[in-house]
Amino acid sequence: MSLALEEILHLPGLEDMAVRAGGRNLQRRVRWPYVAENEGIAEWVMGGELVFVTGINHPRGEANLLSLVEDGEAVGIAGLVILTGGTFIQQIPPAVIARAEQLGLPLIEQPYALKMVVVTHLIGTALVQMAQVRRSRHDILGQLLTGDYPSLAIARQRAAHLQLALDEPRRLVALRLSLDGLFEHHDPAQAERLWQATQQALEDHLEAWCRATPGAVTAQLPGDLFVLLVPEAADLRAVLAELHRQLLGVAGEMSLSMGLSTLAEDCAHYRQALNEARQALEVAQHLRPASGLCDFSELGVLRLLQGISDRSLIDTFVSQTVGALIETGRKHPHALLHTLDALLSENGNALKAAQRLGLHRNTLNQRMQRIEHLSGQSLDDPLFRMNAAVAMLIWRMTEAQGKE
């Protein structure tokens, strides 16, 4: 269980706590409060703590406070709270504020008049309540995603009580980390610790992402599957590709794949959407697209390709079908591929393809002639169009498109 530091600072009764540095990282998760009694904290914390410094049991001069800032950031505490105004620490030295800001460590000032017992009680109570709400949210989401609920009407009532707007159209994203090689490269104990830590970091990142993304909700089913519910958007694929890039930084040496469902009109269709997202995830884990994502709406051909165990056969097919259209010596080496993709998307309608690409019709005609010349195929040949459509589907999943 955890709360974002910014959520804690907004708790009723904690209004007098003031952020002095590291305000850009108030989304850090607080797992519990810890009052530092010793000279240092490095050996007493494990990460995620909101550390309180009073100066009662140990002198807290500038040098010691700077050391606490350094150690706290190194071990991953959520933030550092310094009590001021009493007998022990009159004010936070400017050098300490400057260093915390430089490191990005949230540094908070608490007046001695605000009793520590009150602060820790408020935080502890909020953590317990948050855990209860979070457990209830995951429970109702899990029921709707698996179809294991006694009554859809009651499920909707519970969701409304928990402030979950689940009857809006959404698409589902299934996410999973890959364990490939983890237990081969590390001893079992170390691998298990790494696995659990990465799972927790992934969960934290997804929750932060959902808080910053209107309409997005996350859920974790029993096991290792994470689920996102996201509203439909024109740039959804690009948004999810960026999320995948962020999550790779969290995953470290592990890979991560994502599967996207078609649109679920309301929560009554979540079970079907989850099934679609799982199928797309399986294909993504096999084909490993550059964006990390496979869309169920494209799954017909992709499921056939998934059955080909030798990836080189797929790459050879793409190269033989459209590889000649990549003009490496030009400023836009993939222009002909984009043109072919637009033509296929518009069922061969050159006027609509030109409009899609923002090109003059004459420019499109010149590109069409060049496509036929370089490929040695006719755009009127239905077999070539079929092969090209499959090849372009695969190409859109490769790094080549992203590197243009």
From TrEMBL:
Gene3D superfamilies: PucR C-terminal helix-turn-helix domain (1.10.10.2840)
Matches recorded under InterPro entries: CdaR-like_regulators, CdaR_GGDEF, GGDEF_dom, Homeodomain-like_sf, PucR_C-HTH_dom, PucR_C-HTH_sf, PucR_dom
Annotated ranges, domain GGDEF: 170-298
Xref: Pfam families: GGDEF_2, HTH_30, PucR
SUPFAM superfamilies: Homeodomain-like
PROSITE patterns: GGDEF
Residue spans crossing the bilayer: none
Family, as annotated: Belongs to the CdaR family.
Protein name: Purine catabolism regulatory protein
Gene label: pucR
